[in-house]
Amino acid sequence: MNEVFAIYGASGCGRSLMPVAREQLAILNNKSRVVFIDDALQDNTLVNGCVAMNYEAFKALNYAYKSVLIAIANSTIREQIANKLEKDSISLWQVQATSTFIMDEVTISKGAALSPFVTIGANVTIGRCFQANLYSYVEHDCVIGDYVTFAPRVSCNGNIHIHDHAYIGAGAVIKQGTPDKPLIIGKGAIVGMGAIVTRDVPAGAVVVGNPARLLIKS
């Protein structure tokens, strides 16, 4: 096959997703080349047995089809890279572990990274370049914006709307909303590790604790 796939970012997130990506291709019987892209490393550096190269070197590879998963925690940088890929006509790659469970009537936009043991409930809509780390879940009737990040073990219960660029820390629990009044996590908000969110979080705010309280206002 005249294809090459890449994970953009060879730090912890990228290294954790590489085995998931290779397994996905193996199940599809796709024997295409898989590499890391990392502009901080010298070309042809080996990272966990996989070649890493900078973006310009990746662009120069002679393949008819190129696809990239962006494994960068910073959502602003993730968006910048996604825009760069689009400009260069390089596809966003979605990587999903075999243990990921996706229920009925789910829409996921391009570029998602779904780690092992992630669950997506029924009637969920998810935006561009979503990252869901180990054991996280999104329950029924949620709407997730673009470039949203879930750290491990996030519990996002039903009828929750999470706006673009929000970050939900490890072990955080978001209380279920209702169909007529979904609980809202605003654009760019940060929910701290282990926080228990029982009410709306304003755009740009940082909340921590149980119950979650404002640490930084937008």
What does this 3D model show about the protein?
- The protein has about 220 residues and is of the alpha/beta class.
- It has two domains: about 90 residues, Rossmann fold (3-Layer(aba) Sandwich); about 120 residues, Hexapeptide repeat proteins (UDP N-Acetylglucosamine Acyltransferase, domain 1, 3 Solenoid), CATH 2.160.10.10.
- About 15% of the residues lie in helices and about 30% in strands.
- The chain is built from three helices and 25 strands.
- Strands 7-10-13-16-19-22-24-25 form an eight-stranded mixed sheet, covered by helices on one side. It has a six-stranded mixed sheet with strand order 3-4-2-1-5-6, sandwiched between helices.
- A hairpin with a 2-residue loop joins β3 and β4.
- The radius of gyration is 18 Å and the shape is globular.
- The termini are far apart.
- The relative contact order is 0.10.
Q: In brief, what are we looking at here?
A:
By secondary structure, the chain is of the alpha/beta class. The protein has three helices and 25 strands.
Low-confidence sequence ranges = none
As an assembly, this protein is: single chain
Query: How much strand?
Result: 25-35%
Give the % helix.
Answer: 10-25%
Q: Radius of gyration in whole Å, from Cα?
A: 18 Å
Terminal CA distance reads: 49 Å
